[in-house]
Structure prediction request, 689 residues.
Amino acid sequence: MTIDDRPTLSAPDDDPFLWLEEIEGTQALDFVERQNQLTLTAFGGKAFEHDRDVLAAIYDRPDNIPYVSRRGNELHNIWKDAANPRGLWRRTTLTEFRKAAPAWETLLDIDKLAAQEGEDWLLSAIVTTPGSSRAILSPSRGGSDAVTLREFDLVTKSFVADGFTLPEAKGGADWLDADTLLLSSAHGEGMATSSGYARTVRLWRRGQPVEQAEVIIETTPDRMMIYGMADDTGPEPRVWIVEQIDFFNHAVWLRDAAGSITKLDLPTGIWLQAHGDWFAMKLRTDWTAGGRTYATDTVLGISLSAFLNGSRDFAVLFEPAPRRALQGLFWAAGKLVLSILDELRPRFEICTPSAAGWSRETLPALPEIGVVDVWPLDRHPSESNGDLLANVQDPLTPSSLLLLARGVASPVVLKQAPKTFTSDGLVVTQHEAISIDGERIPYVQTGPEGETGDAPVYMSAYGGFGLAVKPYYNSSLGKLWLERGGTIVQANLRGGGEFGTRWHDAGRLAGKKLSHDDFAAVAADLVRRGVTNARRIAAQGGSNGGILITNMLVRYPERFGALFCTIPLIDMRRYTKLLAGASWIAEYGDPDKAEEWEWLKTYSAYHNVKAGQSYPPILIATTRRDDRVHPGHARKMAAKLQAMGYEAWFYEPAAGGHGYGKDNRERAGFEVLGFRFLKEKIGWKDGEG
Prediction:
């Protein structure tokens, strides 16, 4: 019997499963419903319900850390638990927050709002402005990226009658003044780019129909997006406008208080942060200015007014090394904070500009090893006194939330997250695998000490968009994998940002295939070291990691026992035509260009599935409300694999956006379904590890 394996590499557009791209199509939803029933019947049941409830209870614990941002003198927080699954927006004071059981004032009960309005609301964003009691809230349906905009009064704790409101669209707004919004939204005829994001920045004045809002700048539909941000840290209010050419390149414009707009003479691949009369930027390529050439990933600082007057006398604030790279930068009270990974160890430096030059100090008293994230306590830079928050953790140590008063004082522990799993006898170790081309690929292993050759291993990675993955404390894996005898491994693949631009560039475009080779090399290294064997390795990846997992299926099936592929990107022939796909061309390439399809087709697993192979079992899961990565990717891959006779399972809940569920219980159920599948397919019974 001949097996229909369309679409194929020789006929990539002959796709019999296009009907599954109709998100709400009757035939497509029938497919989803049947698949969900099969998957839940096979991997649901009492064990699933028990683990889901255990995990949901951890996510709903009253002693979890409530992460806050300060607006004026108030600390704001969104809190979810079993009684408030959609969340409470609430506020308190720093003095109260320091207490073991702070008193909170509720501003908005999102569950009550959803019930009153009969909508599947979640709260995506809150935009306030200093000195005002008004906010713009962004409720979304089911956690989607598209949001509505609604004006809210923090005094009356209610939506403003006849206030600013906007129907569902991708984008948002910022306050220019009490009666004017800086609108960067795809809402309206001709207002969306081909990626589905805003192509204009508009001034929307109170009482004005949005269709009449003045367009102050626009970009062409083929660009990714454009957006504006109000800035009141200077002597006069101003607006920064970012025209996103593609995912990694953008032009920067500055609009002054008089409304004049100036394009800054800067390279396009930069990270830029400004405060008052200073700005700093990280380069993405080598750049020559003022007769001097600066290397990729260098951070430069200069006076903004001097720059606008023609000066190119930059100060060098950070220089990279092969395994030392900047991860981020931000301002707090006139000080620039640099977040650095040095051989994957967290480092933070503070640079302070003055007329005499830039001074430098190192953020003190933070751990040498582990994960450390630092950010400003204040939501608005103009209100910052320099207070910073730090989150410190590692795979066996839950988070501590620290306050660094004015950025330099010794850290004070504000909150300690609960220990949610037993870690007795577990160790964290760092290793390196050698990839196919000789590159060293780091990975972190957490589990029992010693090698048995048969450990049940859960592997994960990302490897894309310059994002560094870090070994965080993970309650779900800790409780349901480590505590029961398993081992977890997190790999740092090329395509990520762990070692800067060269590491990212090595794993994007044609190099994406190398990123996948890196993951396979880590799996092989676990076997080489005697940790486990291939049939006991379970691997999971989501979003960009969906390309990774499906390539393990078709390129390295012999190295894995089971695969869990979530909210995935898979079909690299049509990805640019589906939802936000066009915005990722800079990461993957354009399949409509013959020369770029040549490399894209090497990792489009949807086209590379072959009959008669020994593929490991796979569960592919997505959500219907994911309006970033189209659910059609997951649906089509599952359908094609099943039609070819492979063991492929599928799951798609109705809500969740580009995530695992709209509340803690749904998120727990999504994860546990994957764990139950992986454990069964690698032949692991809980506790036997």
